[in-house]
Fold:
Amino acid sequence: MSNDQKKPSTIEEFIEGANKETTAKKARRRPSKEKLLLIIAGRANMESYGKPSLIYIRKDIQADMDKYCSGSKQSLVNYLLRRGLDDLIKEGTLVVEEQE
Structure:
C-alpha cells in the first residue's frame, strides 16, 4: 500500500480518510462499439518482436485509431503495418509517397 492508503488506527482517521477528497482519474476514451472496425485482444508473444523503435504517428492516423480501433497501440500499429505491407507486396508496384 502507498502512504496515502495506510490503514487507519483510530475511528477519527477512518472518518477523515472517508471524507478526504480524491482526484478523479481521467476516464479513458474508448470508441463507441458502433464505430469499431478493429479490435485486438490478448497479449503479444514478445519472442516474435524485434528491438523497440520510436516512431511518430501522424495526428490524423492517431485520431482514426482512437475512433475506430480498440486494443494496445503496439498491436494496432503492427497489425496495420503488416496489412499495408501485404498489400504493397501483393500489388508489386512502386509507390512514391510525398511527405506533408
Notes: Residues 73-91 form the longest helix (19 residues).
